Amino acid sequence: MTGDVAVLGVGMHPWGKWGRSFVEYGTAAARAALADAGVDWRDVGSIVGADTVRGGYPGYVAGATFAKALGWQGARVTSVYAACASGAQAIATARAQILAGLADVVLVVGADAAPKGFFRPAGGDRPDDPDWLRFRVLGATNPTYFGLYARRRMAVHGDTVDDFAQVKVKNAALGALNPYARYRKRVTAEEVAASAVVADPLRLLDICATSDGGAALVLSSVEFARRHGAAEAVRIRAVSTVTPRYPTTVLDLPDIATDSAVAVEPAPETFRASIARTAYEEAGLGPEDLSLAEVYDLSTALELQWYEDLGLCGAGEAAKLLREGATAPGGRIPVNTSGGLASFGEAVPAQAIAQVCELTWQLRGDAGDRQIEGARVGVTANQGLFGHGSSVIAVR
Amino acid sequence: MARTRTPVVTGWFTGEGDAFRLLGTRCSACASVFFPREDAHCRNPGCGGGDLKEVPLSQRGRVWSYTDGRYRPPSPYVSDPELPWEPRTLIAVELAAERLVVLGQAVPGVTVADLAVGMEVEVVAGVLGEDAETVWTTWQWRPTGSQGVTA
Question: Where is each Thiolase N-terminal domain found (chain A) (predicted)?
């Protein structure tokens, strides 16, 4: 397919709470991806950095910051920010440059050094910023929204807190097998139930931590990959970076209210469902073609929501899909084989890139003990604050 | 010395007691309602744009979902670090006439055990916090009791 780009190399710095600079994590991931690709940094025509607002000024210009750390070599540079979807925008930018013929090989890097505790807005008195306002006026942290979604699922679909706990059990078992994961211990449903409530009905072990980490990809044109001896490389076939359509009907971070549906009838699908549908349409594939999915499990309940938004099952059927084991290894459609955010914690600008690293390892057959046999097609899904869709489909 | 009562955000609500109302704006061309208020341009992409006029929102709605905050939120939320954190309940409320959902704190004393999705609640004036000079006022949601409270 003419819209494909090749994934020549992938690399990660292990997730954790290392207390060092995001530059170090990103540079380590970039060097690993370049080595994996067999590409010399000096032959990379473009670098795209996914920004971190927590890295101070160098974090806002991550592309150049990583390029300097790797050694200035004159590459074209781009820095992008889209909250949790920053990594997908970096991939989309790299792909556009490759398909437009502006660069043969592009390095995509994202890394974060996260603070302890809740994410909070940037400092200062900023009553014109919805993200500042939700903290100032309501004390609404990110888990507030996760709790609202979880309670809504319980009321509308009959999900239980034990269903949510079973998502953690599944993901922790997979994370235990992943050397890049921060949490590598299996967790029982009893341990989830014994952890402290953070935002009712969700407990500490239902909610993802905030982590340090870095991830990188070396992307190229399919033609370059052939010349490079990588004709069988994993390919990215779709990158969805869509926005919502007016009026939104699901209260989304960091909003205090939804749009009003008084004048315009809402679209039949939610924003999250539209993210996946756009990716499927671009790839000419559907949920029935998937071998695996990496979804943004900011909370256990949100993983279940993604099953429905990705079309892995019908509305309200996610808990049933989980209970049947369909989303565990050996099931019909394993989800979060990496261990997910449950095992990694979120390193915001690196996370959507890390999702594509996992797809690539799985599609190559290099995922070790986590390997899904015969994996051919994988999808990632994620959503960034303020209305940033993010979904990538990779094939081999 | 009396402290000044000041809205935590200007122009989002008005009135005292039974007259307390959230304030949004309505587009004169397409009738879309906005909360928080839009004063510059209508955000309906199919609307050519009309005047945005201030409009009070419905006082009553139904619980879309609810949760609580068991841990102290970070700044810019203001709370006294000398006092133990008291969990706050948050309710997302669907207003039928405006067809939108508005998030707010519950009145003090209402816990998640008192709530259910679909329950009727009403908006009331409340206090977000106080400092040396100011009592910061806000909106809060309170069950009307016209639906069975589950606790």
Answer: 22-111
Considering chain A, tell me which residue range(s) the CATH 3.40.47.10 domain(s) occupy. 5-117+212-234, 130-209+237-395
Q: Which of B57, B77, B102 is the last residue of a domain?
A: B57
Interchain pair A246, B43: CB under 8 A? yes
pLDDT score recorded for residue A238? 98
Return residues 232-251 of A near B (CB < 8 Å): 246-247, 249, 251
Query: The tokens 């939320």 sit on which residue?
Result: B77
Q: Do B32 and A149 touch (CB under 8 A)?
A: no
Report pLDDT digits (tens) over A211-246: 999 999 999 999 999 999 999 999 999 999 999 999
3-state SS record for B22-71: EEEEEECCCCCEECCCCCCCCCCCCCCCCCEEEEECCCEEEEEEEEEECC
Q: Given A140, A199, A247, which is nearest B70 (Cβ)? A: A199
Tell me what ipTM this predicted complex has.
0.95
Partner-chain residue, chosen from B33, B77, B98, that has the shortest CB–CB distance to A135: B77
Class of domain A5-117+212-234: alpha beta
User: Mean pLDDT throughout A248-277?
Assistant: 96
